[in-house]
Amino acid sequence: MVxxxxxxxxxxxxxxxxxxxxxxxxxxxxxxxxxxQLCGVTKFCVHPENLKDQKTVVGGTKSIxxxxxxxxxxxxxxxxxxxxxxxxxxxCEQIAPVYVSDINDFDAFYTLVSNLGxxxxxxxxxxxxxxxxxxxxxxxxxxxxxxxTRNVLYLIWRNPLMAAGRATFINILLEACKFNNxxxxxxxxxxxxxxxxxxxxxxxxxxxxxxxxSEKHKAEFESELEAQILCVDGEYFSWYGxxxxxxxxxxxxLLLEMH
Length: 259
Hints:
The protein has about 260 residues and is α/β, with parallel strands linked by helices. It has two domains: about 20-135, 3-Layer(aba) Sandwich (Rossmann fold); about 145-255, Rossmann fold. The protein has helices spanning about 25-30, 50-55, 65-70, 85-95, 105-120, 125-145, 170-175, 195-200, 215-220, 235-240, 245-255, and strands at about 20, 40, 55, 75-80, 100, 150-155, 160-165, 180, 205, 230. A five-stranded parallel beta sheet has the order 3-2-1-4-5, with helices on both faces. Strands 6, 7, 8, 9 and 10 form a five-stranded mixed beta sheet that branches.
C-alpha cells in the first residue's frame, strides 16, 4: 500500500503502538476503536477530552521531541503533509513506518479512512464511518440545495490578516455550505489579505483556530465593515477526521444564523 503522497508503506504486522502527530486524526483513530493502541499524541490533540492525560505528549505538530517518540517504540506513526514538516516525517521514518495523509477533498478523506482500516485492522468501523459521512453529506447537500450562494472570507490569522484560500480543505467545506470564497486564485492556500478584499465579502467568518478570534475581534471588524461578521468553530471547518460527521449539524445551525 502507498500513503497519500505515494510513499510505500510496509507493515510486518498490525500495529500495536501508534503515534499520531495530527490532532484531527488522533480523534479519528479513537473513533475507529484504536485508543488502546494509541501511545503518543501532540499537545494539540484535545479530542477526546482528557486523552492527553492518558497518553504521552510528544510535542506539537511542527516541533516534536524525537527522543520521546523513540522511547515509546511505536510500530506506526501517522503524519500529515500540511501539519507536519518534511524534517519531522524524515526523523520519524528512522523509528517506524510513517503514513503521511494529504486531505484536500472528500475523496481523499474516504481514501485515508479506508487505508487506515486495512493497515490497522479496523475495516468494519472504517467502512461504517465512510458510509455515515457520505450519507450525511448527501443529506446536507440536499438540504442546502435551494439556499443562496453567499460571498465569504474565512479568516484564520489576525496579524497579519490571513484567510483560507481555494486550495484548502476549508474551502471544500465552504463550498459544501454554498459559500463563494472571495479569494479567486485557484492555487491559493493561506494568503495575506487586506481590508479591500474583506469589503468584497458579504460575510466574514472569524475562525476559532489557529488564531483564537473572539467576540472582541468581531466588534472590531463590525466597526470597519458592512459585512455580517460571524465567529465560527474552526475545528468543524478544518478537522478532516471523524469530526466531519458532527460538522454538518454545525453548518446547518450556522446557516440559520446568517441573514
